[in-house]
Amino acid sequence: MELNASLSLVRPEIILSFSALALLLLAAWKDQAGRLISILAVAALGAAAAFTASALGSGASAPAFDGLMVNDAFGNFSKLLIYIAAAVSLTIAPRFLEKAGAMRAEYPVLIVLSCIGMGIMVSATDLISLYIGLELQSLSAYVLASFVRSDGRSAEAGLKYFVLGGLASGMLLFGASLVYGFAGSTSFAAIGLAMDKEVGLGLIFGIVFILSGLAFKISAAPFHMWTPDVYEGAPTPVTAFFASAPKVAAIALLMRVVLEAFGSQVLVWQQIIIAVALMSIIIGAVGAIGQQNLKRLMAYSSINNVGFILIGLATGTEQGIAAMLVYLTIYVAMTLGGFVCLMQLKDKDGNYREEFADIAGLSKTRPALAAAFAIFMFSLAGIPPLFGFWGKLVVFNAAVAAGLLPLAVIGIAASVIGAFYYLKVVKVMYFDDAADVIADSDDKVLVWTGGILAAANSPLGYFAIPVLGVWTAVAAKALF
Question: Structural domain boundaries of the chain?
Answer without folding.
Answer: 265-479
